[in-house]
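Two entries, shown back to back:
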Amino acid sequence: MAALEGKRAIVTGASSGIGAATARELERAGARVYTGSRRDGNLDVTDSESTKRFVEAALAELGGLDILFNNAGLSRGRDPVWDSLEEDEREVIETNVLGLMRMTRLCLPYLIAEGGGHIVNMGSVAGIWAYPSGSSYVASKFAVHGYTRALRDDLQGKPVRVTNVAAGIVETEFSKVRFKGDEEKTLPSACSSRSPGARTSTSTRSSSWRSLRSQAGTSCGTRRRSSVRTSRESSTSEVAPTIRTAAPMNVARVPIAAAIGPATA
């Protein structure tokens, strides 16, 4: 924890859930934290000008930057591909992927200049294993996973670490946002419906996927387990003290703030 004393951090999507919990833990660990979210009215990562203003304000307040936690994200609907709405798909991709890339691009020069930066991207187990009736969210998290790996390759030789958080079931407002405030749809029974006549193949599902689903349940649940994979994919940790880690990765149960330390080239 002491390693974060005096560190300067930006946390997006910090009005609730994982973002709010991470901001609190970073402050508890000694970091100075600047937060933003659409709900707070100071950051819309889908808007270039909003993002630029936010980053400029954060840098002016913090006087530099050591940590960027790209947490802003959402999902929309729980429908099969043929029933998905284009506006929902666009909002998910623009927020989860393009917004994350925009924040990273604007902050990277300052992280590199500090000689010890750390980027933490909020991914998901849905970026490693797909699940039915969540195509846009799954696509966005696969993109985050791929972008994180490409970013790590681009940063080889530079003093910036990159972490992808592969979250599972966590108690947040994720499902409420997904269904635009319709709390009845967040109930587990609402997730079990399928289009009439749709076929499900069980032979193509791997044992790892079945194991994951049995532990984590469907994405409509209100608890999401979490693990953190570092840029070297050699260690994992929890996002916050109230979050438990889950298979398939072996994990060490330490707060994310403890995992964010001085960068190594």
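entry 2 starts here
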Amino acid sequence: MNIKKVIAGRIKPAFFMSNFSFYYVLVCNSVAYLKEKGFCVMYIAITGSKNNKDVYIYQSFRKEDGKSSSRIYKKLGKYNVLLEQFNGDDEKLMAWAKSEAAKETKLYNEHTGKVTVKFSQAACIPMNEERSFHAGYLFLQQLCTQLRLDNICRVIKGRHKFKYDLHTILTDLVYARVLSPSSKLSSYNFCKTLLEPPKYEIQDVYRALSVIAEESDFIQSELYKNSNFIHPRNQKILYYDCTNYYFEIEEESGLNHYGKSKENRPNPIVTMGLFMDADGIPLAFDIFPGNQNEQTTLKPLEKKILTVVNLFSVLMPVLEVQITESLTASGIGLMSSRIPLKS
């Protein structure tokens, strides 16, 4: 529909018995017609006193309660000044003003109007072509950026010789662990469904794991420092506890040893000790052999904690551990909560 043809010729002067008002308004039937068609309607209005009139483009709109109203969209200028530009010809002035209103209406509808998308029922999606992607990782991506993982990986790359993108691999592993926890191979396949699929290969993931393990202490320390820029850490109390993870194997190797499994599984396990601050946010962790007594896992983590943060007290929710000399020398108090263990 040609909006210019609809608007053209529909502006008529309406005189009000007042010394302060002189209006040109759009005929109501043309406004109603365009509203029914879903178009934004703009029209010309001339307001002001006899010697001080302004020419405006008004926009009609509908309020939240459903009632129609209008508002000033654009000022074209002073009526007397514009009239001089058209050699005093009022008809030419109004024709130009209507054309300006038509242009603004067209531009507004192009930017805010409805978009029609055509689909073909006979068209088929090519086989093995991915058309849907996961975008839930984007908020995690922002968090990883705030934690400055890119700077951490840049420092690590300076200490090693590798060509793959460690930052991309590490962040993708974080996304997969949060959104779809599984094996590294399954995590790699999951990352292929992300809006930004990986450009590295699965062998790069396996190679990066050894570097991440070697730089684990450095990564944890830097993450703690950077996390304070996002949320000030509550350092008054430190919580510590242990858990274990089993492997679906029978032979012991490395840190995988037979021990007391919390799930009562007859498989080799490894033990993980985890520190959390008073808000329950992880602070540091370490991995120990599955056959090691949990009460002896605190000492190896003492130096790590002392290099990361100064703490006032340590709350042990499960274990009964004596105050060690290094903690005492650092002025860190240790509270042992004696919770009876199941026999």
